[in-house]
Known about the structure:
The complex is a heterodimer. Chain A is 32% helix and 29% strand. Chain A contains eleven helices and 14 strands. Chain A has helices at 40-47, 65-68, 70-73, 91-101, 106-119, 135-147, 165-178, 192-195, 215-220, 236-242, 277-285, and strands at 3-12, 15-25, 28-33, 55-60, 63-64, 76-79, 153-157, 183-187, 200-205, 208-213, 226-231, 244-251, 254-260, 269-272. A six-stranded mixed β-sheet of chain A has the order 6-7-8-3-9-10, sandwiched between helices. In chain A, α4 crosses α5 and α5 (106-119) crosses α6. By secondary structure, chain B is mainly α.
Amino acid sequence: MILEINNLTKKYGNNTALDNFSVTLTNGIYGLLGPNGAGKSTVMNLITDNVKRTSGEILCNGKEILSLGKDFRRKLGYMPQQQGYYEELSARAFLLYMASLKGLTRREAKYKTDELLEIVNLTDVAHKKLGSFSGGMKQRVLIAQSLLNNPEILILDEPTAGLDPKERIRIRNFISEIAENKIVILATHVVSDIEFIAKEVILLKEGSLITCDTTENLLSQIDNIVYEVTVLSGEVEQLEQKYNVSNIFRRGDEVIARVVSDSLPDELRKTKVRANLEDLYLFYFGENKDGKSEKA
Amino acid sequence: MEIKRVLFNKKIIVFFLLLIIVNIGFYINTSYRGEQSDITDFSIVNTKRIEVLNVVRKMDINDALSYINSRVKKFSTVSSLMFYDEEKTNDYQNYVKIWKKQETQLRKKHPNISAAYDNQKYNFTQDEIIAYEYVCNEISDNLNYINDYEGYLKKIDEQAVNLNTVSIFADNSSFSSINIFKTAEDYKKLKGIKLTIGNDEPLTGVVNYTFAHYVVLLFSIVIILKFIEERKRGLQNLVFSTPKGRAVLAAKRCIILTITVVATSVIVYGSLFISSFLIYGGTEDLFRNVQSIEMFKNFTFPMSEIKFIVIFVLINILTQLVISFLLLFIFSFIQNNILGIGLLGIISGIEFFLYTLLPIQDKFALLECVNIFYLINPTDAVIKYTNLNTFFGIIGLSKLIIYASVLFLLIFIFLTVLACSRKYPQKTSNKVAYFILSALDKIKNFYWKVIERLGVAGIELYKILIVQKGIIVLAVFVLVLMSSVNTNKIVYSGADSIVNGFYEKYSGNVTSKTLKYVEQMEAEINAVDEETNKAIKDFQSGKITSNEYDRVMMKSYAYDNERKALETINQRLQYIDSQEKSGNDALLVNPEGYAKLLGSDAFNRQFNFALVGIFCLTILLSNIFAFERKMAVTDSLKSSYRGRSYLFFKKIYVADIIALIIWAIASVIDIYSVTYQYSLREFGAPVKSLMFMQDMPFNISIGLFLTILYLLRLILLLAVTKIICLISVNTRYEVSIAVSFMIIVLPSILYLAGIDIFVYFSFAYPVAMMSLILNSNGFSFLIPILIILSLGLISGFIAKYQWCSVRRKNDFRN
Lengths: 296, 814
């Protein structure tokens, strides 16, 4: 499965939400990272054909998805960011209904619904109304909904929002397991969700593609500029104002700040550490305090 | 803040305004459908009533009585003379044969009125004369009531004295004895009160209108549901943990509910009284004693009409408060809404049992009267004089209702505040509650297993009927239509019975047997007429005694029904003959039922049914697509394999099923409303067999015509559903219903309100159809039908295109 996105542009009046966005996706998980308003949801809405594009093309195995129409949608699984469900339907009734719309036969729908309810740990409450569910439970139902048709292209917009750590790990591992034969596009603010499972990370800012590469390659870009700096309590604020600080913690009596910067003065007590995706996020989308670290 | 959340809520305000409009609308409709509407137009009767009352009010009772009696005589004479004139014009021979003699007698009896009529001094239409006659009879009855009232009071007093001498009432401590004396004592308060004639309608109209009580109750229920909304949203723990989330909040809610009931009652009843006085007039009577109206003759508290109106509203406020606080208490005490509804059902069942089965004389009659069903509509208890034998002694029903209401109101308020402050939101259920809840869980699981078996169309239907409470709309639809069905059995006049008998035997082709029957009838009547003429001559020449003369005349009068029947039968035979001569097939068919089903008598009913049907359709379907946006599922649906065309057609299919249900309900009730009173036969006869259908541009069988008519109505409803669907695809949830209402329903309401131009924009008028068909030339009635069908078809196509192919232009989903 190859999904090619070529020069995709979406304008809302004078605002350009997505500007000549081009990537080629093959089977595997793609993390879509970017701050609010970066254009992540626009990309997803354009792939799912819920929003009219201004220009560009999206090809699925070489064919334009607009002409493929429902044949493309048959391959698609989508979980939007906004929780959409029927409060007055039970979880199982909702999934069976969605399964019918995804073209599953009655038997397939029942089998898949029960299987997914088990996976998202909701079998016990399958006959309860969705309206009585907690936010995390609803989120799990919606993840299950997106997987009903065993999609070849799975688009998940903030899938782990509202989930407790245990459920988050469970869902993340499940997505990782099923991603072998499909393209998974996973938009999130929680970078740890994709750090270890994403084949590639797509970085978006203000509608433009910054980069798309493997996590290792991206992290290698900042390998030498992530430090743990030991400071006094009173100096933390000053440090934060000047540099991109990704974390602050105490170790014994000392305060340690994790800083992403290639211009730290030598006099600081610093130790180079291994970069992670959160550092990368800060590197690209931080507030550019020292005038050098932000790459966008 | 709680007041703002509950009362100053956009949805609540819109719902309230809608209730008020519906309430006033129903009241006006009920007034227009009053008994006089069978004989003539409501507004004519009303105008004449005001006119006659203005004259009578200035007179004393005796003058008024003689004036009214002379009016009754005058208008009934003029009405008859008008009828004779009409007969002269229509069929002179028949007039000579049947009516001339009676006219002569009438003219002899009332020479002045006849002379005035001949000199065209009565410049009225026949409808006006009928209205005058109706109104004068009504005022005459009221005057007689007023005149006899002192006697009525005296009789009650005398009864007490007389019964006291009867041995079984001699025991002063018995209920019967105390009751007699108490009754006499209570009625004594009415002695000497001045009763005056006036317009009874504005007051009796509202007092008899029970729908308003349910409107107030419904709104209270909505407010109570708003109170317990926090449970559904999981906010109960949060609210309970705040400093003012317990007793203070409960007290605030009690105040809000009280304000709601008081304000709703004042507005609902106030708007009704204002509407009533605007429709009927009669504000000048507001200060006369309410006992001047016969309906209040046993209301033993002397007071003016206006004071009664205030008391009426206050009592209704009190009783509505009791019911509302009972509901609030139940739902405060029982945290589980389903259990609450269950308990309410049990209480209502017991109350209904007591209300219907306990005799009023029973010692336990207290339980019948201090009862939810009595409290919903306390008017009867207040205006009818009844004493109850209770454990605490004898007490008047009206006093009992008031005292008990105050007592129960205080108890329910106290218990509500107590329940709200003491009941924890999270509580381990006791054994009974646990048993009930686990049983309910099992039922719920079974219910969901059934629902989960539904396919896409089933779930779409479920969304409309259950999730969006469409089933309630359908139930109200059935109730509204059924309430318009007249279940009184028709009492046929002698002549009508003869005509019906004739149709029983001779419906179908006109045969020699038919003609022979008519000839025999004619011969029989002629023989009686000859005998009568001979008797008149013989009596004048003194050949027979007055007794013999009277006997012959009585026989002649007895044949009046035959004469009228023969006239009708001949008319219809002549019509059949004329149709056959014009080359149209026509059979003898009793037209009574068909006239009620299809003729001008049915126009109002058909229009109302069509309007209510379309209104319900609008409520049920205007959110069929908009609901998906509200639930934020549009993106998930549209990115599914079958979420566009397939889902669109499934939704349209369900919309059509809803239209089919509405159509089936309306059609069945429409036919039932006629067949309950009249029989419909000879479906195979050509439509031109019915005189009112003589101008039809085709002559198919009645059965086929009915089939096409009802099918066309269905097709039009299906077209209307497509227009509603188009609006729903394009608008937001709340907006959709408003836009649909304005486009689909409002023009018909404006037409109904008398703005004739809106007939061209009305959807109900073509759906009602018969008025359109019978008032059109040739096939021109097809034009509006074809326009609606085209609109439906185009709307369907556009809606499909918009749902399936049009993408959002922005990221805003709602």
